[in-house]
Amino acid sequence: MGELTAMETVQAADETIHEVGSKWMLNPATWEHGKKHGYDNPFAHYFAGRCGVMGDVDAGVVTAAMGWFEPALVRAMWDEGVAVAGAAEAARRYMLAGTDWGREHVPDDPRLCELAERVVQAVEGSALPLFCGWRAEPLPESGPGRLTQVFHVMREWRGGLHLVATTAVGLSPLEAVLVADGPDKARFSGWQGDLPEFDHLKPRHAEAEEITDRLAAAVYERALSPSERAEFATRVREVGTAVLA
Known about the structure:
The chain is mainly α. The protein has one domain. Helix content is 74%, strand content 0%. It has helices at 6-25, 28-36, 42-51, 59-66, 71-85, 87-105, 110-122, 129-135, 144-168, 173-181, 183-188, 202-223, 226-244. The chain starts with 5 loop residues before the first helix and ends with a helix.
């Protein structure tokens, strides 16, 4: 199967893990699952469900952990979502939607799950509250649902690292959204009014991506051997092919 460096593992696996997580988050079945559990607004379900692992905190804490959403939008959606059943229960119901989806769409790969869990446990959680909240959540005993949740935890890890990196290079939340995804994504994320120019910020964003990759690679380096990293990347690619095709 060969060997991979830690950085090659980042480049081979991290985007697929992110996309698998996005697939279930944006799936209409997830929205329907939320509606059945009391969340008429899918965005309130998203904010309360994704961030409920941090507990019944003020919306300002959620804004800080999420990173790139406009604060007023976060407050409105968070307050609406946690009013349904509290923060912890929102997270539990949200992940049920994910694991239910995973049982139908994600291949059963116990070995990949084992390797991914080793990576998760090797992460130093400083400045990563959302990741740490999800890492502390109980996992399904086995099967595709467990792998789906572990992938979600890894997705929050990468997202948290990138928030650290964009902050480190001096990008504001709005600037980070604009330079990464453009004005449409900024509007979707709640930002209103005139949007600033952002082309000159692209070098900073490239630097933030490099920092994110470097921080992630350090974890792969200590969690997995070179041959295990190659196996991990291959198995992630196979899951991605099955789920994202």
